[in-house]
């Protein structure tokens, strides 16, 4: 359901949340190595997250990425919205062009409650909350698999 871009962005932001500080920034190459992600693609994704104000970036020899306390209060939904077309969640699960309450596909009523619950969790789960959960079970790489 999530694109690779979203998965990579979420994994990178969670990694930063648990490992970087304003004093100890982390570059995208190191994040890519640690998470086994394609470095050029991740670098572009990190730039998008910085442009939208979801993470902080400092250029130069001691530069890199980190999250401020305020950044950590952003939601997972905001990460997804930054790198993906969030309207894809409104599309029919089976890919039909006409699918709605008035004209449902065969799985519409199975999919819509699941989709709404998932989107609500993305909208209500802060980056810090999710990063804390992943720090406990240490399964960050499972996001991107």
UniProtKB/TrEMBL annotation:
<dbReference type="Pfam" id="PF02082">
    <property type="entry name" value="Rrf2"/>
</dbReference>
<protein>
    <recommendedName>
        <fullName>Rrf2 family transcriptional regulator</fullName>
    </recommendedName>
</protein>
<dbReference type="InterPro" id="IPR036388">
    <property type="entry name" value="WH-like_DNA-bd_sf"/>
</dbReference>
<dbReference type="GO" id="GO:0003700">
    <property type="term" value="F:DNA-binding transcription factor activity"/>
</dbReference>
<dbReference type="InterPro" id="IPR036390">
    <property type="entry name" value="WH_DNA-bd_sf"/>
</dbReference>
<dbReference type="InterPro" id="IPR000944">
    <property type="entry name" value="Tscrpt_reg_Rrf2"/>
</dbReference>
<dbReference type="GO" id="GO:0005829">
    <property type="term" value="C:cytosol"/>
</dbReference>
<dbReference type="InterPro" id="IPR030489">
    <property type="entry name" value="TR_Rrf2-type_CS"/>
</dbReference>
């Amino acid at each position: 359901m999530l694109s690779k871009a979203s998965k990579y962005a979420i994994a990178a932001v969670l990694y930063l949340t648990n490992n970087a500080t304003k004093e100890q920034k982390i570059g995208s190459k190191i994040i890519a190595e640690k998470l086994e992600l394609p470095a050029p693609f991740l670098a572009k994704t990190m730039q998008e997250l910085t442009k939208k104000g979801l993470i902080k970036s400092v250029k130069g020899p001691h530069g890199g990425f980190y999250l401020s306390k305020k950044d950590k209060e952003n939601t997972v939904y905001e990460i997804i919205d930054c790198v993906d077309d969030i309207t894809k969640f409104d599309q029919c699960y089976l890919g039909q062009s006409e699918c709605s309450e008035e004209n449902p596909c065969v799985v519409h009523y199975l999919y819509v409650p699941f989709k709404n619950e998932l989107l609500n969790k993305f909208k209500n789960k802060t980056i810090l909350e999710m990063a804390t959960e992943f720090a406990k079970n240490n399964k960050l790489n499972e996001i991107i698999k």
